Amino acid sequence: MSTGDTTSPAARGTGLLVALGTAVFGYALMQTVVVPALGLLTRELRTTPAWSAWILSAFLLSSAVLTPLLGRLGDMHGRRRVMMGVLVAYAVGMAGAAAAQNIGQLIAARVVQGAALAVVPLSMAILREALPRERLPFAMGLVSGIVGAGGGAGLVVGGLLADHLSWRYLFVVGALLASLSLAMVWRYVPARHHDTSGRLDVLGAVLLGLGLVAVLLALTQGPSWGWTSAPVLGLFVLGVLLAAVLVLVERGRAHALIDVGELTDRPMLATHAAALLFGAGSYFFYLGMPLFAQQKPGADGAGFGASVTVAGLLMLPGMLAIVPAGAAVGRISASLGSRGPLACGFALFAVGAALLALGHASYWQHLVFYAVVGAGSGLVMGALPKLIADIVPLARTGTANGINNIARTVGSVIGSQLAAAVIASTTSGRTAVPDSAFSLLFWLGAVAAVAGVAVSPLAVRRALPPVPHAQEEARA
């Protein structure tokens, strides 16, 4: 914004929130919008289910590799500048996907789109540097809630577009959102001077990227290659070895991408563990609920035989519950402490998951019980960036949130593959997924949430003397 801008601080803060909310919503929407359309894409592009699965996997792998690098670039050279570059790349990736003529072109476009995950940690860093401390819990919780709502909305929007229009409109909508976000970020996000004396840790980025690719590739290909096959076991071993080398290399570097001290700090480890558990738990519902809704009732009555659109709409109350729950993080923190929202969120998630495991034969049960899961999700998503802001200095906010989003991405892959394994193991020789498989998926979601409750007390705010926001910003 220009220095002559006479807009009031409150109006600028509102514009900033709307701009960042639009950007993260666009990313989150496209993370899941293709899920309801995977079968359609397989048919339209004349490919196999194994190849169409890479439409999701390529996006997740690219996100995990690029996010910490882009977060670090934002910390060094300005979050607004890097975010605008990410949004340009995202829009190009969307346009490329909309014009794709075969599965290879679509997968390549999804790789480019993966850069968009960086808008989440960049947004958290921008909020921390641009807003007064007292507004941060609400703002971070709101933006985090929008991320969750966007993921749920993707299932609804994807179903509507897949049912009534061409699959290409999935990506046309994404391109329009990316373009709108770019214009709003340019208008409302302030440009700030950053210290560019640090160096980009290319070696650390390469080691982290290769390690993540090895582990995530093993997780995504495990069901088709075999979990005990030499390629899968070799990839897991390679991932562990690269992680060990990364720790050794980063320990002695002045401008390390990964701060080893942060990773050995109990509160930071707890927030990353919580993100991983949340990512895994969420995908049991993302895959299980639409499948149950669309399946024609089998011998045991499992399924509604609903359309893709109706399957998505059944998750709408849960999606809508995420945003107000995320925005309530600040008030809950003031009453229960900074750990309160995380523990309460996981507890609500566990209750909703258990209720769905016990009863999911009626539409109302999906609508009501998943709304409880959604409320818990909003609290967890709003609590994580606030806990990170309590732990790391302002100058590393983007990088630390990027690592946290990677943990959630890895959890998402673990959850999706566990869900696929449960479904595959119970459908051998069957025409429909049995009701027991869906119950098991929802119980697994509850188990992940209970583990999250256990982790929450470890995410303790480090005892630091209060620092005025302006002084913190100047010091960073």
Descriptive keywords:
Growth Hormone, Chain: A, disordered C terminus, 476 residues, mainly alpha
Secondary structure layout:
Blueprint: H1 9-32, H2 38-44, H3 49-52, H4 54-77, H5 79-98, H6 103-113, H7 119-130, H8 136-164, H9 168-188, H10 202-225, H11 230-251, H12 260-263, H13 266-294, H14 308-313, H15 316-327, H16 329-336, H17 340-358, H18 363-391, H19 397-426, H20 435-455, H21 469-475
Helix pairs in contact: 1-7, 1-8, 1-9, 4-5, 4-6, 4-10, 4-19, 5-6, 5-7, 5-9, 7-8, 7-19, 8-15, 8-16, 8-18, 10-11, 10-19, 13-18, 13-19, 13-20, 15-18, 17-18, 17-20, 18-19, 19-20
Describe this structure in words.
Helix content is 76%, strand content 0%. It is built from 21 helices and no strands. The radius of gyration is 21 Å and the shape is globular. The two termini are 22 Å apart. It is found in: Cell membrane. Residues 16-464 form the Major facilitator superfamily (MFS) profile domain.
With helices defined by DSSP (H or I, 4 residues minimum), what is the helix count?
Answer: 21
The Cα radius of gyration reads 21 Å
Strand content: under 5%
CATH level-1 class of the largest domain: Mainly Alpha
CATH topology description of the largest domain: Growth Hormone, Chain: A
Average pLDDT works out at: 80
Counting DSSP E segments of at least 2 residues, the number of strands comes to: 0
How does CATH name the architecture of the largest domain?
Up-down Bundle
Spatial gap, N to C terminus: 22 Å
Structure in a nutshell:
This is MFS transporter. The chain crosses the membrane at residues 16-39, 51-70, 82-101, 107-127, 139-161, 167-188, 200-219, 225-249, 269-292, 304-330, 342-361, 367-388, 409-428, 440-460. The chain contains 21 helices and no strands.
